[in-house]
Amino acid sequence: xxxxxxxxxxxxxxxxxxxxxxxxxxxxxxxxxxxxxxxxxxxxxxxxxxxxxxxxxxxxxxxxxxxxxxxxxxxxxxxxxxxxxxxxxxxxxxxxxxxxxxxxxxxxxxxxxxxxxxxxxxxxxxxxxxxxxxxxxxxxxxxxxxxxxxxxxxxxxxxxxxxxxxxxxxxxxxxxxxxxxxxxxxxxxxxxxxxxxxxxxxxxxxxxxxxxxxxxxxxxxxxxxxxxx
Amino acid sequence: xxxxxxxxxxxxxxxxxxxxxxxxxxxxxxxxxxxxxxxxxxxxxxxxxxxxxxxxxxxxxxxxxxxxxxxxxxxxxxxxxxxxxxxxxxxxxxxxxxxxxxxxxxxxxxxxxxxxxxxxxxxxxxxxxxxxxxxxxxxxxxxxxxxxxxxxxxxxxxxxxxxxxxxxxxxxxxxxxxxxxxxxxxxxxxxxxxxxxxxxxxxxxxxxxxxxxxxxxxxxxxxxxxxxxxxxxxxxxxxxxxxxxxxxxxxxxxxxxxxxxxxxxxxxxxxxxxxxxxxxxxxxxxxxxxxxxxxxxxxxxxxxxxxxxxxxxxxxxxxxxxxxxxxxxxxxxxxxxxxxxxxxxxxxxxxxxxxxxxxxxxxxxxxxxxxxxxxxxxxxxxxxxxxxxxxxxxxxxxxxxxxxxxxxxxxxxxxxxxxxxxxxxxxxxxxxxxxxxxxxxxxxxxxxxxxxxxxxxxxxxxxxxxxxxxxxxxxxxxxxxxxxxxxxxxxxxxxxxxxxxxxxxxxxxxxxxxxxxxxxxxxxxxxxxxxxxxxxxxxxxxxxxxxxxxxxxxxxxxxxxxxxxxxxxxxxxxxxxxxxxxxxxxxxxxxxxxxxxxxxxxxxxxxxxxxxxxxxxxxxxxxxxxxxxxxxxxxxxxxxxxxxxxxxxxxxxxxxxxxxxxxxxxxxxxxxxxxxxxxxxxxxxxxxxxxxxxxxxxxxxxxxxxxxxxxxxxxxxxxxxxxxxxxxxxxxxxxxxxxxxxxxxxxxxxxxxxxxxxx
Lengths: 229, 759
Prior knowledge:
The complex is a heterodimer of chains A (229) and B (759).
Chain A: E1 3-7, H1 14-25, E2 30-33, E3 45-48, H2 68-78, E4 82-86, H3 88-96, E5 102-104, E6 112-120, E7 136-143, E8 147-149, H4 152-160, E9 164-168, E10 184-188, E11 194-197, H5 213-228
Parallel strand pairs in A: 1-2, 1-3, 3-4, 4-11
Antiparallel strand pairs in A: 5-8, 6-7, 6-9, 9-10, 10-11
Helix pairs in contact in A: 1-5
Chain B: H1 21-26, H2 31-41, H3 47-56, H4 59-62, H5 67-70, E1 80-82, E2 89-95, E3 101-110, H6 112-117, H7 119-135, E4 140-150, H8 158-176, E5 180-187, E6 196-206, E7 221-226, H9 236-239, H10 260-274, E8 279-284, H11 289-301, E9 304-308, H12 321-326, E10 332-337, H13 342-351, E11 355-363, E12 367-372, E13 375-381, H14 382-387, H15 399-406, H16 420-428, H17 437-440, E14 451-453, E15 460-463, E16 470-476, H18 479-484, H19 486-503, E17 507-516, H20 523-542, E18 547-553, E19 557-558, E20 565-566, E21 570-579, E22 596-600, H21 611-617, H22 629-644, E23 650-653, H23 658-670, E24 674-676, H24 684-689, E25 696-700, H25 703-713, E26 717-723, E27 727-730, E28 733-736, H26 737-752
Parallel strand pairs in B: 4-5, 9-12, 17-18, 24-27
Antiparallel strand pairs in B: 1-2, 2-3, 3-6, 4-6, 7-10, 7-11, 8-10, 9-11, 12-13, 14-15, 15-16, 16-21, 17-21, 19-20, 22-25, 22-26, 23-25, 24-26, 27-28
Helix pairs in contact in B: 7-8, 7-10, 8-10, 10-13, 15-20, 16-26, 19-20, 19-22
Subcellular location (chain A): Cytoplasm
Subunit structure (chain A): Part of the FGAM synthase complex composed of 1 PurL, 1 PurQ and 2 PurS subunits.
Organism (chain A): Flavisphingopyxis soli
């Protein structure tokens, strides 16, 4: 299994993502700087980590989406390489156009960092094959701009195509986590090899984190990829 | 006096004003201090030189009112690698991955005045400044903490200030990717016109890769990296060294503007360069910017410095040398590089898209010489600038006179409680005890994926990356105790930090402090300062927690709120400890039903200065609970031993609100009630809500073993109840956990409302 983590100026979950990949897959990912125009050969898995690429200036993910390396990521995604964007990575994926819609400021306007319950809506993708359909899992979120938006026609189409991978479940006494349309927390592309996810699976890979539901995502991806390879 | 040789007077910069008494006064120097400037220089200063003396001799930079007393603090011990005097303190934390030896580098610092004037930027740049103090010494920052004090919740400015400060801390800390893992918040009318924002950063470095500030190597390049210099924050240090007058708002232009994105790049670039051996010395540009960083580097190294102001990266055109030297633009560092290493260093900073400029060199003159537009605009001998800084032994009241001045009423009759349940609900919802969830959910508490205890417990716990060991971190201070009795309050701040670290199973190691007091020119304020320091010193010695770094913030009082209102004396403590095995870590949450609840330590019903007396009876009376340091040490050791042996699985120290509040917090955290069975006492409220020190509540499956261990150690313990159910049952009251949780969670959302993000 050959993997890469993309690093932008202002990425800050890149090292956590690399630790998770290394611990679970047994091999360390290549750390690829945003200015590179090509990716290492033979990649099976690309992670776009969380953080504040370019300080979230202009719009979250907007400038990172125009980095040289993202052209190579778009090409890799088209070839079927698995691409996971977490938090700021999800924002980069929507800004790149690999995923539809946009992530707006949280409805409550505050940054929100807490554990959230999620329901697994699609278990057919390489990312979610390790979960049971309808299963509730818990992952941490930590974001200011996680309020997913797309127009109703797009949302209906995404739902119809089974592209909602994870949904915020239950919310809390204050209502919803961030105001996301249809409570969308994770979204697949139409081929199912690109996943954008606001929660952080790399922060839930061992008991010391307070839960390991995120580990199962990586285990599922790496098992699926090694079968395919 | 040979060193004070006079040289040719530098050319005054173009448009330089004449140095009139008014200009001297505007620079915060009194007549006697200006006379020292004249003596140090041997002539009249020009405006650039006056500005430099002004900031270096400000209270903020020179510690002129506190230096004499700070010298008495205990700062040494086998665990101390570097005590006060550098950018931050350095302590030995033992083994890291692959046989490395690690150090924790940490400090706490105030950003009080700017945060009152412009809460978002004030708090944000406070976080940025303390981060730089830590990574400038070679550490990767692994945790941020903060200690906040606001005015009364119903003061019209409080909501705006809380929102701005919390958003500022989050906005900066979240972006740089350092988890904000804990802290403390108090509300009191004494802070209505002068809030306190104290930020702490803890970093981890290899012991053989620690960087210091002393410049050396005549002819070595002095290099400027980071952001460009602008006109923001000019005279921030001088502002922080005076009371607020009625015109606090007018000082807004002296507040700096932070850019956490640049700070993140600066962290990564500095750590990348630090992995090489190119750096001789490095210092961040904090208060008083380029002036204090260059003067401190040269003074520490006993060398001279020559700077070319034309080479300083500038954000605006037409900046004068005066403006450049006094700017407090953020995210900047100054370095001395080894000869010939400039290109290598420049490549790293260019990669991270940061400015890099050689702006001068180390000289052997012992003088600071600045050139601008081809002319010498400043030529100051460095030794007098540092050595002749004013030092004041300010008059202080005796402890007796202070007591009379403070006018704390004696405790008198202790009221009885007719309804323990109602009192408990009131306390759980009170501003100083209520859940801080509204705040900490706005901080990224987990980036780094090593956070083992998030806010809400006794201490934050952050794993030492790649190991099975962890750092425990806490901030503590009980200002109402410090006001009523500065000496006991000073002891208590350290003792509570010691308990909080012990409660998670960590061995307390060392301390940083942030000494927030009012105007030191008032003898009663000096009595507070010296009293608190005396208590802190004794406690640090008794509990083996030397003070390795710190900061003093004086003049925390405001005329804006109606004349001379001093803050409560607030010597905020930050402390760290080491947890040797993360698998043994204790948390406050009750884990299961049917466990014995055991109270460690004597309960005499000390209700003086208690929150119960204040919140339920409207009285701020009595002496604070006395602190017996020998007992604190023994009880801490005992609890740590119970945790390490796995004999207890829930631990909480007793502090604000006393034992019943501690038990309720344990129950809420574990969603597991408690049935308490107290011995028959005349006034159970005093026992339940008294704030007697040196106490812990623990829960255990093996009560006999804990009782036996206590007996063997000669420590007083009492079995006071059993976990289980969905309520707290005590003294005839049964208070449902649901009601307690609602009370506990209600305060902040009610204060801040759903639209607080816009406040």
